[in-house]
Design brief:
The chain is built from seven helices and six strands. The chain has a six-stranded parallel β-sheet, with helices on both faces. The protein is of the alpha/beta class.
Amino acid sequence: MRRTLLVVALATVALLTPIAGGAAAAHDPILFVHGWSENESVWSTMIRNFEREGWTSEELNNWRYNTRQSNVTTAREVERKVAEILTRTRAAKVDIISHSMGGLNTRYYLKNLRGTEKVDDWVSLGGPNHGTTTAELCPETSCVEMRPNSTFLRELNREDETPGTVNYGTWWSSCDEFINPDESVLLTGATNTEAGCVTHVGLTSNATVFGQVRDFVR
């Protein structure tokens, strides 16, 4: 009888004793990366949706960068931002959700700055992964890099478009007014999803796209 009581007591103590270091995070922290001529406000709807689904403010990381600069420069900023998030949250990896040109600088980070070691899931919403002819109307460095067959894109897409063990996902729209051709978004080795007729910016707030992205990074 005393042995039974001892076992029950020890089990109760084990249940009430907090785990050292605190409880594990429910989700990988997410870094949102906007596109050309945008800022962090483009993610307002999607972030609210993630909050409703149980993600915490610490897990949802939004920021802005200079969209005129080279994507190589921005990739180094992404590298620093990811390191800061991992240090602060003590998570092992982050998820990245990008829109438009944000897909290019984050892919550069993955491929050339050892980002594949620190990213679990990567999402591109309307990313000009193989270039867009609309970038020919803009003379900025980042726009030149977005042009089809640019030196930047040839190197980015050389050999393996989806390196490492990262879970890659793209979403593209048949009604995207900025990505031409529409299929530029698709990557070999990624899960490529057609979003239907959704505007370029609408990809960040469309309810169906959000549900699919949520399930992809969950």
